[in-house]
Write a structure and sequence with these properties.
The chain is built from 1 helix and 24 strands. It is an all-beta fold and 282 residues long.
Length: 282
């Protein structure tokens, strides 16, 4: 499947978001949030949070929320681009905060590593919910909760990278785990997004492609192959939300800040999956 390289020269792009005609993302290892103009290929720095930055989203006020991974907090960017604390998760979590979904009602959902992936075995942890700056942890048992996307008004789906599964969670009323869908071994699901037909498009970090999974039946297909690259996130964009933007980089992070191998690719789904488009749900 052919693609266009939209942006290059970053370290480790993730947290892709289509927002008001631009593609936003975090260069996680560089500690930078970018706004990208897909027509010109220009990148604009919107926030810097060293050493690690992850999930992003927006409040209805237009203010940007950003996850500070190491401080295990969510920051809010004010009208003068100043950053202030929106929510502190460090009292509950020992390990890094990760990706985030911000809902239309300003509720934010944030995942955490839950353990040190460099030296420890995978361990379950809680998913955070932030409502009006107040934090609780209504869901337990997620292993390296990563990408989060909304399915509909009542459900979200969360990728559990080192459990090779995705979890569907009810967010209306009593928050609860509805079901888990096991993916093929070593799928390493990372970022994800949900389309208008009820399928999750899942970036497989170390499995060189995008997996498309029916969230009701569990049926799945390798929708896109991206050989030789780490595949870390995806989102829909373009005027009709029928392009899939995919974040890639090296799987070996040793020299990633020096070599800047990160790229964001664009796939035209009208050619391979006609009728499929995004919902603007991450």
């Amino acid at each position: 499947m052919t693609y266009e390289v939209v942006f290059k020269g970053t370290a480790f792009p993730e947290a892709l978001r289509w927002h008001k005609g631009d593609l936003w993302f975090s260069d996680i290892l560089a500690g930078v949030v970018y706004r990208g103009d897909v027509t010109t290929g220009q990148l604009h720095k919107e926030a810097e949070i060293a050493p690690l930055v992850s999930g992003i989203g927006w409040l209805t006020s237009g203010e940007l929320l950003v996850v500070d991974c190491e401080k295990r907090s969510v920051l809010r960017r004010g009208p003068n681009s100043d950053l202030s604390l929106h929510a502190d998760l460090s009292g509950h979590w020992k390990f890094n905060a990760n990706d985030m979904l911000v809902d239309a009602d300003n509720t934010a959902w944030v995942g955490t590593y839950g353990y040190n992936p460099e030296s420890e075995a995978p361990a379950p942890a809680d998913l955070a919910r932030i409502v009006n700056g107040k934090v609780d942890f209504p869901i337990a048992g997620l292993v390296f909760a990563n990408g989060i996307a909304r399915i509909d008004s009542e459900r979200i789906v969360v990728a559990e990278t080192f459990a090779d599964r995705i979890s569907v969670i009810q967010t209306s009323g009593d928050v609860k785990l509805l079901k888990q869908i096991d993916l093929p071994k070593n799928s390493t699901p990372d970022g994800l997004v949900v389309d208008n037909q009820g399928f999750a498009w899942i970036a497989m970090a170390y499995s060189e492609g995008i997996l498309r999974v029916n969230l009701e039946t569990g049926a799945m297909e390798r929708a896109i192959e991206i050989p030789g690259k780490g595949v870390y996130d995806c989102t829909f964009g373009g005027p009709n939300l029928d392009k899939l933007y995919v974040a890639t980089s090296d799987t070996d992070e040793t020299n990633i800040l020096r070599d800047l191998p990160g790229e964001i690719l664009s796939f035209d789904l009208t050619l391979t999956h006609p009728g499929v488009r995004g919902l603007g749900n991450k």
